[in-house]
Every structure is written in structure tokens, then in C-alpha cells.
Amino acid sequence: MYKGGEGMWAWLFHRIAGVAIALFLFLHVFDIYLIGWGRDVFNTVIALYRHPLFELGAIALIAAVLFHALNGIRIIIVNLFPPATTIQKHMFYAELVIVAVVFIPVAYVMLSRLI
Questions:
Q1: CA-CA distance, 69 to 85, in Å (whole number)?
Q2: What is the pTM of this model?
Q3: Domains of the chain: which residue ranges?
Q4: What is the CATH number of domain 6-114?
Q5: Mind listing the pLDDT tens digit of every residue in the chain (115 residues)?
Q6: Distance between CA atoms of 6 and 10, rounded to whole angstroms?
């Protein structure tokens, strides 16, 4: 019976981050599309992005992009170098450490601007 583990969490977080990034890209394309509806419509939508919830969403987006990119690199390494499968758990934890080390200062700067 499958009991999960680091591989399952890496897979799940990778998919969630990918969906979040895709939703952001859809939103971004849509707001650029609104330029065709006129300056006032576009500026109204862009003004919504200054709301604190959107700012928190931008911080979450950075976390998603960072995790998704690093996990993608881990997947490439495991696929190209089969012996790396023996250390994939360690690579996952190293990835989480790198994400935290990079994300925490960025989140601090973005949150300080928000507050």
C-alpha cells in the first residue's frame, strides 16, 4: 500500500504551484486584453491589484514560482541521472531549504511595503 512521503508531497505541491501559475498567467493575459475595452476599464482593473489580498497573492505567486522551478530542476536531475533516485528525499529537503532562504527575505520586503 502506498503511504505517501516526500515524493507525494513534491508531486502535489508541484501540481498546485503549476495550476496557480497558470491561473496567474490567465489573469495577466485577461487584464492586458482589457486595454481594448478602454483606458478606464483597464485602469479600474489594475487599481484592484493594489488591494492587500492581491498583494498577498503576489507573495504566494513568488513562492509558487520558486518552488515549481526548483522542483522542476530536481525532477530533471533525477530523470537524467538515475543514481540520484537514491537521494531524491534529501534533494527535496534541500529544495525546501533553498526556497525558504530565498523566499523569506523577499516576502519580508513585500510585506513591509504592504504594511
A1: 19
A2: 0.86
A3: 6-114
A4: 1.20.1300.10
A5: 466 788 889 999 999 999 999 999 999 999 889 888 989 988 998 898 888 899 899 999 999 999 999 999 999 999 999 898 899 899 999 999 999 999 999 999 999 987 7
A6: 6
